[in-house]
Design goal:
alpha/beta, about 270 residues, two-stranded antiparallel ribbon, about 30% strand, about 30% helix, Rossmann fold, 7-stranded mixed sheet
Length: about 270
């Protein structure tokens, strides 16, 4: 990793440290961990009892706790020290038997002491913080037991490519505003507020993201020797990205019925031979 990318990842670490106390107090992160998953996600994951499950880029650990409550030996890994400290405190408070490790995802194999897992899960909203997908896929392959499953559920690149435009009395129209495909390097973002409810950030406001198309992800995982088992696209996401979205069930939102059906979230399954 070159020095410029290392600098941007350090900036992301500081930004997530600044977000953590706001997220910890937000209504957004007070939900039951089970509600972060759709029924089809649990079906895709299969039986988790007595399985070793690792969540990469776990943030406050809601996914990790959900897996543990389904009987998994659950571990979470994240770059931000503040997030790991908060995740551990929450687990101790609620009596959840989980483990958290602080490390850059690219250092996960070493940080976890060479341990292997039956399932490696990538939390929603994570891929955009990865500057190098092939290197990440190689790490994932090294973390899996033979026959193990990697399950990636993330916001669809189309979601990030769309942006609203007011058009007279017609209401908000979604237009292509941003790149879908990769190739232009890091995108610098500077925002005083995070995606949850709560006050402005008290610390670092600068972060960097990288665009990845679905094809980039499939190619990276296949290149690491993993077998693609399936790719699912869905029109629902876990928060109202745009004001005119409609709630379908607690915690899940979609565009109004009269608008085109487009993928906002995707899930990819791949296994290690």
């Amino acid at each position: 990793m070159d020095s410029g990318t290392e600098r941007m990842m350090r900036a992301n670490e500081a930004n997530w440290d600044a977000r953590t106390p706001i997220h910890a107090e937000s209504r957004f992160y007070q939900r039951d961990p089970e509600t972060w998953f759709a029924d089809w996600e649990w079906a895709d994951l299969g039986e988790l009892a007595d399985r070793d499950v690792l969540t990469l880029q776990c943030h406050l650990g809601v996914d990790v706790v959900a897996f543990a409550r389904r009987g998994a030996r659950a571990v979470g890994l994240d770059l931000a020290g503040a997030a790991i400290d908060e995740a551990r405190a929450r687990a101790q408070r609620d009596g959840d038997d989980v483990e958290f490790v602080r490390a850059n995802v690219y250092d996960a194999v070493e940080a976890l002491g060479g341990r292997r897992f039956d399932v490696v899960y990538t939390a929603k909203g994570s891929l955009c913080y990865l500057p190098d997908l092939p290197a990440w896929a190689s790490v994932v392959a090294d973390l899996l037991n033979p026959g193990g499953l990697v399950y990636v559920v993330d916001f669809h690149p189309l979601l990030n490519a769309l942006g609203p435009s007011q058009n007279g009395d017609d209401g908000p129209n979604l237009l292509l505003r941003n790149d879908y495909l990769s190739g232009r390097g890091a995108i610098e973002k500077n925002s005083t507020h995070t995606y949850t409810d709560g006050p402005a950030l008290a610390g670092s406001t600068r972060a960097y993201e990288w665009r990845h198309g679905v094809g980039d992800l499939v190619t990276a995982l296949a290149g690491a020797g993993l077998r693609i088992e399936g790719l699912r696209e869905t029109e629902q996401i876990q928060w109202p990205r745009w004001p005119h979205m409609e709630q379908t069930e607690p915690g899940w939102w979609r565009l109004p019925e009269g608008e085109p059906r487009i993928p906002l979230l995707f899930a990819l399954r791949a296994t290690k031979n």
